[in-house]
Specification:
This protein is α/β, with parallel strands linked by helices. About 35% of the residues lie in helices and about 25% in strands. It is built from 15 helices and 23 strands. α5 crosses α8 and α10 packs parallel to α12. It is globular, with a radius of gyration of 22 Å. The N and C termini lie far apart (about 65 Å). About 50% of the residues are buried.
Length: about 450
C-alpha cells in the first residue's frame, strides 16, 4: 500500500511515517520548511520527501492520505484530496487502527514532560527486555529514533491533547485507548483550539473514560486540575506521585531516593536537572511497574537514560561557552528549565545563564502567556527575545518588565552576533523554541568560533 503523509516532518507524523514503513508500506510525504532531526530520520529510512503542498505530489494517487493536524481547509493538497475523493485519515486514527489495536498501550499525557517521560518509560521497558514499540514526539537519545513497532504487546505513546485533524477536533489521545496512562500535569495551553483550561480538562476526562478498570492511572498528586478531572469520574485504580503521595523522590538531583508508599525502592543517580525530571522519573517507574518491571530494575535503567534531543541538549561548547537547545515553549517549562540549570551551577559563581527565546507556538504567538513570561525568564542573568514577523503582541513589553538584562531582536543574525560578542567563558546559553529558531543554534556556534569569548569577570 502506498501512503502519502501531509505534514510528514512534524515529530508525530514523522513517527507515523516510520511505523508505516516498518509495516512494509510504501511511504512518501509532503511538508514545508523542513529541518532536523525529523528530516534526517526520514531520509535515513528512505522515505521520499516533497517540498510544499502541491497537488502534483499526490499523482499518481496514493492508496491512503494521512493528514496532519497542522493542515487546514484551503491548503492545496487538502483541497485536492477532497475534490478527487481520495481516501484519507488522521495520524492518530491510522496509529490506532494499524498499530495499537490489540496491544497494551502505555500513554503519557500532560502539558509538560510528555516526551521525556515517554522516552524514560520506553527505555525502562527496553532495558527490562520487553522490546516495546513506541511513538514519541522527539528523538530519545537512547534509541536514536522517534518510533518503532517493537516486538512485544507493549507500546508507549506520547499522548498529545492537541486536536487530531481539521476534520476531527477531538484530542489525539482520544484514539489511543491506553491500559496504563500517565497524567503528568495540566495547565492552559493550545489557545488556538481551547477556550480555557476547563475545555482541556474535558478532553482529559474523555481520555479517562477509555481506560479499563483493570488498567492504571499514574497521576501528579499535586495538580489541582488533575484532581478535578479525576473527580468528574474515574473507573480505574490511581497511583499518585509528588509530595507525600504513593511515589516520592527525596534528595538532590544527582542522587534521588525513590519511595513507594513509604518503602525505599532504590537510589537514582543521574545527571538530569530539576524537580520536573524527578517527577517524570517517578511517573515512568510507576507505569513500568504496572507491566511487571520491578522499581529497582526501572531505577537501574534510568541510571543509563540519556535525555531526548532538544531537551537541554548541549549543542556545543565553544571557547568555554556552553550552548543548549531546549524545546521549552511555555512559562512553566521555561522556569523549571532555568531553575534546574541554576541549581546545577550553584557552585560556580562566575557562571551566567543566558536565555534566548523564540515565541513560536500558536499559544505564544497569540500572547496568551505574555504576562507570565517575564517572571519565568527572570531566572536568567540575561535574556535575548526574538520578535518574529506578524507576532500578535509586543515583545518589548516583556523586555520592559525584565529591565536592563533583556534585549529584543527582529533578526536572528543580529541576535547571534550580539550574543557571541557578549558571551564570556563559563556562560551557559539556553536557546528556547519549539521550532528551528531560524537556525540560531548554528549561527551562534559559528559566531562564537569567530569571536574570542572573553574571560569571566
Amino acid at each position: 500500500m502506498h501512503i502519502h503523509i501531509l505534514g510528514i516532518c512534524g515529530t508525530f507524523m514523522g513517527g507515523i511515517a516510520a511505523l508505516a514503513r516498518a509495516l512494509g508500506h510504501e511511504v512518501s510525504g509532503s511538508d514545508q520548511n523542513v529541518y532536523p532531526p525529523m528530516s534526517t530520520q526520514l531520509e535515513q529510512l528512505g522515505i521520499r520527501l516533497c517540498e510544499g503542498y502541491k497537488p502534483a505530489h499526490l499523482d499518481p494517487a496514493p492508496d491512503c492520505v494521512v493528514i496532519g493536524n497542522a493542515l487546514s481547509r484551503g491548503n492545496p493538497a487538502v483541497e485536492h484530496v477532497l475534490n478527487q475523493g481520495l481516501p484519507y485519515t488522521s495520524g492518530a486514527q491510522w496509529l490506532a487502527e494499524h498499530v495499537l489495536q490489540g496491544r497494551w498501550v502505555l500513554a503519557v499525557a500532560g502539558t509538560h514532560g510528555k516526551t521525556t517521560t515517554s522516552s524514560m518509560l520506553a527505555w525502562i521497558l527496553d532495558y527490562a527486555g520487553l522490546a516495546p514499540g513506541f511513538l514519541i514526539g522527539g528523538v530519545p537519545t537512547n534509541f536514536g529514533i522517534s518510533a518503532r513497532l517493537g516486538q512485544s504487546p507493549f507500546f508507549v505513546v506520547e499522548a498529545d491533547e492537541y486536536d487530531t485533524a481539521f476534520f476531527d477536533k477531538r484530542s489525539k489521545f482520544a484514539h489511543y485507548r491506553p491500559r496504563t496512562a500517565v497524567l503528568n500535569n495540566l495547565e492552559f495551553d493550545h489557545a488556538d483550539i481551547f477556550a480555557d483550561l476547563a475545555a482541556i480538562e474535558l478532553q482529559f476526562h474523555h481520555l479517562i473514560r477509555t481506560i479499563p478498570g483493570t488498567g492504571l492511572i499514574v497521576a501528579n498528586g499535586r495538580e489541582e486540575s488533575i484532581k478535578r478531572v479525576l473527580a468528574r469520574g474515574c473507573w480505574t485504580p490511581v497511583e499518585t506521585f509528588g509530595v507525600e503521595q504513593d511515589w516520592q523522590a527525596r534528595g538532590a538531583d544527582e542522587a534521588i531516593e525513590v519511595f513507594y508508599r513509604g518503602q525505599p525502592q532504590g537510589v537514582l543517580q543521574w545527571d538530569l536537572l530539576g524537580e520536573h525530571n524527578r517527577h517524570n522519573a517517578l511517573a515512568a517507574i510507576a507505569a513500568a511497574r504496572h507491566v511487571g518491571v520491578p522499581p529497582a530494575q526501572a531505577i537501574a535503567a534510568l541510571r543509563e537514560f540519556r535525555n531526548v534531543k532538544r531537551r537541554m541538549e548541549v549543542r556545543a561548547v565553544v571557547r568555554g561557552v556552553t550552548v543548549y537547545d531546549d524545546f521549552a515553549h511555555h512559562p512553566t517549562a521555561i522556569a523549571t528549565t532555568l531553575n534546574g540549570l541554576r541549581a546545577k551551577l550553584a557552585g560556580t559563581p562566575n557562571a551566567r545563564v543566558i536565555a534566548a527565546l523564540e515565541p513560536r507556538s500558536n499559544t505564544m504567538r497569540m500572547g496568551v502567556h505574555r504576562h507570565t513570561l517575564a517572571p519565568a525568564l527572570n531566572l536568567a542573568d540575561a535574556v535575548m527575545l526574538y520578535a518574529p514577523p506578524n507576532l500578535g503582541w509586543n515583545v518589548a513589553d516583556v523586555a520592559a518588565e525584565l529591565g536592563a538584562k533583556s534585549q529584543v531582536f527582529t533578526a536572528t543574525r543580529e541576535l547571534a552576533a550580539t550574543l557571541a560578542k557578549q558571551a564570556r567563558a563559563g556562560d551557559h546559553v539556553v536557546i528556547m523554541s519549539n521550532g528551528s529558531f531560524d537556525g540560531l543554534h548554528e549561527q551562534l556556534i559559528s559566531a562564537l568560533q569567530t569571536h574570542q569569548a572573553t574571560a569571566p569577570s
